[in-house]
Design a protein that fits this description.
With about 110 residues, the chain is mainly β. The protein is about 0% helix and about 50% strand. Strands 2, 4, 5, 6, 9, 10 and 11 form a 7-stranded mixed sheet that branches. A 4-stranded antiparallel sheet has the order 1-3-8-7, with no helix packed on it. A hairpin with a 3-residue loop joins strand 9 and strand 10. The protein is globular and about 40 Å long.
């Protein structure tokens, strides 16, 4: 079955960087659009970045120029490089793929504190 496992979250100070990873299995990874979402406390889940099968990317305005999404089809991995982190980036970050239904990972916590 489809499985998405995120990792790489942590506790950092403003201006620092983190790299999130999403290990995918149970589907033909190279054939699917992959997305990263995040959900901050008390807020709705929001789309952060997406990468299509051709490697084309799209970002939320709030992270443009700071975050980079990428994928490794050989390893069935998606990544989110997050630079210049801000306190408002604090959230649980989720990997997402849409197949027969919408699939989510368990999420990884990112906390940016002053």
């Amino acid at each position: 079955q489809v499985q998405l496992v995120e990792s790489g979250g942590g506790l950092v100070q403003p201006g620092e960087s983190l790299r999130l990873s999403c290990a995918a299995s149970g589907f033909t990874f190279s054939s699917y659009l992959m997305k990263w979402y995040r959900q901050a406390p008390g807020k709705e889940r929001e789309l952060v970045a997406a990468i299509d099968v051709g490697g084309n990317t799209n970002y939320a305005d709030s992270v443009k120029g700071r975050f980079t999404i990428s994928r490794d089809n050989e390893k069935n991995m998606a990544y989110l490089q997050m630079n210049s982190l801000k306190p408002e980036d604090t959230a649980v970050y989720y990997c997402n793929v849409v197949g027969r239904r919408i699939y989510w990972g368990q999420g990884t916590q990112v906390t940016v504190f002053s």
